[in-house]
Amino acid sequence: KAGVTQTPRYLIKTRGQQVTLSCSPISGHRSVSWYQQTPGQGLQFLFEYFSETQRNKGNFPGRFSGRQFSNSRSEMNVSTLELGDSALYLCASSFRGNEQFFGPGTRLTVL
Amino acid sequence: SQQGEEDPQALSIQEGENATMNCSYKTSINNLQWYRQNSGRGLVHLILIRSNEREKHSGRLRVTLDTSKKSSSLLITASRAADTASYFCATDAGYGQNFVFGPGTRLSVLP
After folding, report:
1. Looking at the partner chain, which of A43, A55, A99 has a beta carbon nearest the beta carbon of B88?
2. Which chain A residue shows the shortest CA-CA distance from B97?
3. Who's near A33: CB < 8 A, 6+ residues apart?
4. A106 Cα to chain B: minimum distance (Å)
5. Which residues of chain A are within 8 Å of residue B41 when distances are taken between CB atoms?
6. Which of A55, A96, B32, B73 gives the lowest tally of CB atoms within 10 Å of its CB?
7. pLDDT tens digits for chain A (111 residues)?
């Protein structure tokens, strides 16, 4: 099976712009979770989608949003980018919500 | 606040030595998982231990779980330079609860 894929791998944006990141889970996995990883805050949970519904949400402002499509692919959107949004954004998929399989991440740099 | 807390934050050992990392958490869990992350990449799942298990082995990895002390340890035996990475514990409190990752332990295995 192909692993979790994330696109793009690298992204450079300027403050105030918006960005959309994409995640394709492993075939058959219906749960997709997103995480933000920064040196200062570590790995922080953003949200989880299951069968196109947001099942759980972390403590992030409303500028961070996501969605999941019927094929389980997921997108994450960040509007009005701030310098502090620079991070590695990781997506993970799982079959039964136990073991999570991570993608390689999208490195977002906000200038 | 993060549930899982690993210690030490950083560990440097010689090839062939054993490496032990510890994780403490705060609330009841369904299972605890260990992940490895090579520099700036996605996380790789290493091992999952359920709350009713006390010890689990996988190759050179040995994980213990003490639910009374809310702690877990990961032992890597006969370490290799390729084991150099950051190691994270993640707690799963069950359906509807998101994974919570600790800040990680940076392991350096010197040849």
Report:
1. A43
2. A56
3. A45, A46, A47, A48, A49, A56, A91, A92, A93, A94, A100, B98, B99
4. 9
5. 104-105
6. A96
7. 689 999 999 999 999 999 999 999 999 999 999 999 998 888 999 999 999 999 889 999 999 999 999 999 999 999 999 999 999 999 999 987 678 899 999 999 999
